[in-house]
Amino acid sequence: MIRYPVMLEKLLSVLDERLDLHIAKPTRSERLAVESRMVRYKFGPWDDNYYPIIGTLIGLGLIEKASGRGRIAVRSTRAGVELSTRLSNDENWSAIAARCRFAAQHFDMSGNQLKELIYANLPDVIDRPHRTLI
Prior knowledge:
- This protein is mostly helical and 134 residues long.
- It has one domain (5-125).
- It has six helices and two strands, in the order αααββααα.
- A two-stranded antiparallel sheet has the order 1-2.
């Protein structure tokens, strides 16, 4: 939901129009960015870039593997929490930090639960071949 703010906006409009989206609303540049398009994958709206990003964050000591039911479970390390706190107070990252807080508050669920929520409420996400833009 953080990587795809336009999809977050669509999902919120379907789920509950009363939610105040101003904090999570995509910027004009996000709406026009090539990166803002979600890609349809076999196991849900996942991004191949996540694996190297997760590996990099583990390598930098910002997150660590955690026990969980799924295949990928991570949690922030102390260094990760400290860095995210500093970044959230930086004007350049404040919109992303606000969107993260918003998503955590309204979408505190597993990746599979999130996938099911998206599939149930945004049929255009599943009505296309794998690896196509949504």
